[in-house]
From TrEMBL:
The keyword Hydrolase applies. Keywords: Hydrolase. It is an enzyme of class 3 (hydrolase). It comes from Malassezia arunalokei. Residues 45-198 form the OTU domain. The keyword Hydrolase applies. Residues 1-34, 151-176, 256-293 are annotated as: Disordered. One of its GO terms (biological process) is protein deubiquitination. This is Ubiquitinyl hydrolase 1. GO terms for molecular function: cysteine-type deubiquitinase activity. It holds the Pfam family OTU. Coiled coil: none annotated.
Length: 293
């Protein structure tokens, strides 16, 4: 199949071949798996069995997003549709001798191995960060930029996902999508696996916590509320964010309505009354690198 390649140092799209070359001391598959398994155990994770039939990437993504690998064909088609619709964004990463349209057509074929280009397209399509774990290395495929509008769009979509997951009667057809980033293992023998917690659940949505980024998201939400409706205490903002399940836009609407009506917040007379702090700088986890294209 056609392979992607590095085009510019500022925006790297590593391929399987380039990642193997980058690991000068390449391990044998058995050693590699042993190292990866030990690394995952330290993280409280394991690589779920994912059928290696050329559809492993999309099976892993399906298990992460829906809690079931069987929707891999649907995700492959949607990812390829996204690639086709955004040729201006992705075509530069395809080898020159392979026409972009031919690459996408081949990727639509059941059993064609997907790689980092498909991961990036899927991340942008679903607005989901994807954490990739491989022996001795972890990196994150970013889903878009960090602009105000991009964050707002991500949060709206995640809010809808929470709403769908909270329904007493699950929708017919495709299961609801998970909340939070996706977690996938990459094995040196060109295979992707869905990651799950050692303590479970072993079926359904993996529900892998992302505490570091949850903290950052809460700080982002506080900052966005304070920028939109300044003058309210940190305690007020935090209480309202909890009441609205983190939906900062709903908090802004409530505060605007209160201000217009002259209502005082029940929390504004607390001892810890002070404005929300500036949004902290993004903390990077050791060994984790944000990759964008």
């Amino acid at each position: 199949m056609a392979r992607t390649q590095r085009k510019a140092p500022a925006h790297v799209v590593p391929t399987r071949a380039s990642r193997r070359r980058a690991r000068a001391s390449a391990l044998e598959p058995e050693q590699d798996d042993h190292e990866l398994s030990a690394q995952l155990r330290e993280m409280g994770l394991y690589a779920a069995e994912t059928h290696g039939d050329g559809n492993c990437l999309f099976r892993a993504l399906s298990d992460q997003l829906y809690g079931d690998p069987k929707y891999h064909a649907k995700l492959r088609a949607e990812t390829c549709d996204h690639l086709a619709a955004h040729a201006d964004m992705y075509a530069g990463f395809i080898e020159a001798e392979c026409p972009y349209e031919a690459y996408v057509d081949q990727m639509r074929t059941h059993g064609t191995y997907g790689g980092h280009l498909e991961l990036s397209a899927f991340a942008h399509l679903t607005q989901k960060r994807i954490r990739i774990v491989q022996p001795g290395y972890v990196y994150v495929v970013a889903c878009d930029d960090d602009s105000y509008s991009a964050r707002a769009s991500r949060e709206r979509r995640e809010r809808h996902r929470r709403h769908m997951l909270a329904q007493d009667t699950p929708p017919r057809g495709t299961p609801p999508e998970c909340v939070g980033p996706l977690h996938v293992a990459y094995h040196s023998w060109e295979h992707y696996s869905s990651l799950r917690l050692l303590r479970g659940p072993h079926k359904g949505h993996p529900n892998i916590p992302d505490t570091c980024h949850e903290t950052e998201n809460h700080a982002d939400a506080e900052h966005l509320v304070d920028m939109s409706v300044p003058g309210h205490s940190q305690r007020t903002i935090r209480r309202l964010l909890r009441a609205h399940h983190g939906a900062w836009e709903d908090v802004v609407e409530e505060l605007i309505e209160r201000d217009a009506n002259g209502d005082e917040s029940p929390y504004d007379d607390d001892d810890d009354d002070h404005p929300a702090p500036p949004r902290p700088a993004q903390a990077s986890e050791p060994g984790v690198r944000e990759l964008t294209i």
